[in-house]
Amino acid sequence: MSEFTFLFRGSDPTAQSPEEMQKSMQKWLAWFKELGAKGHIKYPGHPLERTGKVVRGSQKSVHDGPYAEAKDIVNGFTLIEARDLAQAVEISRGCPIFDVGGSVEVRPIRARECDAAE
Amino acid sequence: MQPSDHLFRREAGRMVATLTRVFGVHNLALAEDVVQDAFCRALEVWKFRGVPENPSAWLLATAKNRALDVLRRQRTARTFAPELRRLLDSEWTLAPAVEELFAPNAIKDDLLRMMFSCCQPRLAEGAQVALILNILCGFSVNEIASAFVSSHAAVEKRITRAKKLLATSKRLFDVTAPADFATRLPAVHRALYLLFNEGYHGASAETAVRAELCHEAMRLAALLLDHPLGPTPATYALSALMCLNAARLPARVDVSGKLTSLFDQDRSLWDRELLTEGIRLLELAASGSELTEYHVEAAIASVHARAAGAEDTDWAAIVSLYDTLMSVRPSPVVALNRAIAIAQRDGPERGLEAIGAIEDRDRLAGYPFYPAALGELELRRGRHKIARKHFRAALALARNPMERRFLHQRVGACERGDPPQTAILEPANRLHREITG
Hints:
The complex is a heterodimer of chains A (118) and B (437).
Chain A: E1 2-9, H1 18-37, E2 41-47, E3 52-56, E4 61-65, E5 74-82, H2 85-92, E6 103-108, H3 113-117
Antiparallel strand pairs in A: 1-5, 1-6, 2-5, 3-4
Chain B: H1 7-23, H2 28-49, H3 55-74, H4 85-89, H5 91-101, H6 104-118, H7 125-136, H8 141-147, H9 152-167, H10 178-201, H11 207-226, H12 233-246, H13 249-252, H14 272-285, H15 293-306, H16 315-328, H17 332-346, H18 348-356, H19 369-380, H20 384-397, H21 401-416, H22 432-436
Helix pairs in contact in B: 1-2, 1-3, 1-6, 2-3, 3-5, 6-7, 7-9, 7-10, 8-9, 10-11, 10-12, 11-12, 12-14, 12-15, 14-15, 15-16, 16-17, 17-18, 18-19, 19-20, 20-21
């Protein structure tokens, strides 16, 4: 098994009614439950605040941000276990984020040397 | 765990009502923003971390913290609820005051306060109902538009205007002053009655949507019964009426949205518990000297509820109750229902005569169940051709797919020469035009 991180980008629920938001949440809960039942969840992860600080350059200057477009902002992550990248991608397709125009970035976590030797 | 159905929508009403009390009614929009924000947070956190043990408490705590935040950051730029000003101004009293405002009993009062505020006389009845659905029941403009089968733009305009008017009132309605409470109560009854009727007779073809409107009206009526000043005979009568009619919902419209007349309903599907509760409430309503339309309508519903079948119904009692209803709240729709009850008691000829005697029957010109009633009675006299003509006229007036299907089937019945049945009507106060108007 290999590990992957799912980076969730750009779901903006602000335009939804309470009922729609609850429905959307229930879809996420169902998705997570299914993945958990199949043993794909290494760590459920966390949501992230929209903004924080960005520290940049040799001066280590501190900026507000990130000021990316809403659709590009990472607002949560989850650690996934899957056979390979192809399966991880397949798993990501069930994510309810696509209903609201968001995206999932699937990134393999690079194995340590000793893990690779196993 | 799974959050209960409609949790967000239910909590929306409680949270907006309480925050509006804290911020002042002129900051209604701010209260709504804070609630929206709390839901966004719940959505984000719960989807990763699961739903907390007590989701309502979580939402309320989040709204409370955000409220404290707003009060601290904006107290120089904004004025908040004038009557709380001294408490909110000082850092010493701010947190305990907000804590108290978010206590369960305070919130219950806030819901009533908001409900009474929405029913202010400067707003048209339709606007009051739309406002209650939006603020207290958490329905979005889209959801209201779809429930009332009207355009998003029309509903939005109506709600925006109503909110502006509400925001100009100095403060929320005071539900602790007995005289004011009693004066405003009839308007609140009326709004809840219309809300219930929109679910019961309404335009939406979706059974689930309609049942939801009925349930919301019953939930709000239960709040009234819970308040020390709320349980008047009229409140009991209105609650009885809702229970007795809601008990028939499962048989009235089937899962596919097909309308079934009172005569053909499978009475074993009627909700016995609601019927019993309705009869109990109707008994409680029988005190004092005031006879409201809710008393009479509930009494009519109880006669139906007690009958094992349409043929066992005490039609004489129903005719006399319609006579009473005509004296309490006369309308051509009530007169039409009375005529149908007369037809049941004395035969179709007498029913047609009674319809012919309805003075303002021109007001029924756009009402599909007017020609449908004529059709049904003609059919019973064996005059299929004339009956068919009436049903076709009714079909042309049908307001939604559910009615269209029902009437289409009646046209078919005339063509096939089926044995007649009676499409019984129930007193409906149409709201649709008022809402979109």
